[in-house]
Amino acid sequence: MHSGSTGKVHPSQGQEQHTEQDGDIGCCGYILMAFSYVLVALFFPLSLCLTIKVVQEYERAVIFRLGRVLPGGAKGPGLFFILPCIDDFKKTDMRTLTYDVPPQEILTKDSVTVAVDAVIYIRIFDATMATVNVSDAYQSTRLLAATTLRNVLGTRLMAELLTDRESIASNMKVQLDEATDPWGVKVERVEIKDVRLPIQLQRAMAAEAEASREARAKIVAAEGEQKASRALKEAADVMMESPAAIQLRYLQTLNSIAAEKNSTIIFPLPIDVMATFMKK
Fold first, then answer.
1. Domain spanning 97-197: which CATH class is it, in words?
2. pTM of the model
3. Alpha-carbon 68 to chain mean position
4. Mean pLDDT for the chain?
5. Which of 10, 16, 17, 29 has the fewest beta carbons closer than 10 A?
6. Could you tell me whether strands 59-65 and 87-93 are parallel, antiparallel, or unpaired per DSSP bridges?
7. Which pLDDT does position 8 carry in this prediction?
8. Residue boundaries of the structural domains of the chain
């Protein structure tokens, strides 16, 4: 039995066929191309000023011939050749650029209005896609970043905006990178620049923090008094076991009072004389 073809076309073959069809400029196009070559030959070497172009190391040039992109992708860096009258080209900067996302008024998940601004780092990885698929790749990415910022932060609590910025920025980067991939734009990094809270909320948070600090200070003071009371109790128990220790403590107290204040102090000696009065 003869096995027939499955009818499937390999993606690369379909892409080549599509490129060949797109690259066909027609009979009039070939006539104009031949005419351009004739002009270049007639006015050589003056025509070299119009036919030879240069792009820098960080640039790429997308060449259009009669409105169609030339096969082979963007040209550069260095020299490349165009035909006068029928060829046009557009340069694209391939360096990483930084853009500030304007401050966005966002209502968080817990109904708090905050103003958030961010910074995005983007670069073009495919000059042809960035030129053909979108009118202004950088401006479109900036507008999309502002929208994505509102969408992402609208699902977060206010406390998360202050403590979990790295996770929010990572989430934004993933969403932006997926959306800008058909434009030939790579989002390398997203940073949450600033989160501005309402003044009333700032005052409430400051009062809450101050109350928390005061509560911790009182707890520490109470723990210190508790430890001091236990130490005094243990010292009193030791003195009760040894009467001589109590007399030495009396003498130490007398020495401290005499050193701090210049006054006359009557202290009974021997100290045992006070024991009779203490019993009564």
1. alpha beta
2. 0.62
3. 40
4. 78
5. 10
6. antiparallel
7. 38
8. 18-93, 97-197, 202-279
